[in-house]
Write a structure and sequence with these properties.
mainly alpha; Tetracycline Repressor, domain 2; 9 helices
Amino acid sequence: MTEAKTPTRHERRRLQTRAQLIQATLKLVLEKGYDAITIQDITDRADLGRGTFYIHFKDKADVVWAAVQDMMREMERQAHRTFDRRAPQVEYYALLNVFRHGRENRDFYRVVFSRRGSAMLADRTQDLMAKILLYDLQQAPNAGKREFDIPHEMLAQMLTGMITRLLTWWLESPQKYSAEEMAAFAYEALYRRRPPEAKGISTQ
């Protein structure tokens, strides 16, 4: 197995600058709304020059999309660390992972899916989420032996639509329900049965 290369000082500084720009952008979107912010707002908040911004990104949409991709990759890594893809009812674990990730990254999802964000970026994020869900469904052990005859592509789209709407409502309103309850409710609504026991997985 090849060892991960240790980043150089220059690479660490570059990653740090990129992260500063992303964080500044996300905070500004929450405060002002996506359409209202400018590149100057972002560089002022990050305390960096406009030239530095254009080294990393081409426009504000590029910054938010970079944040989306980073978050989706992290969500996938988190799922693979926590859940066994060979487990039954992979759909439930996909839902559970998304709601837990939403709980831990509330501001990010509010930027992407709330009215303060960008419709174009929300669409792109949904497309990416659907691709991730489709891959997980196709890799499940029961992929070819399902109780219902719904194409994986359609199921991935259904899950994406339901997840993003529920997630937005949940994060924008007082959080009466836990991530685990949200995943269970969504699973029951879809499949008309109780979710599987999450053996060895904490519900907190």
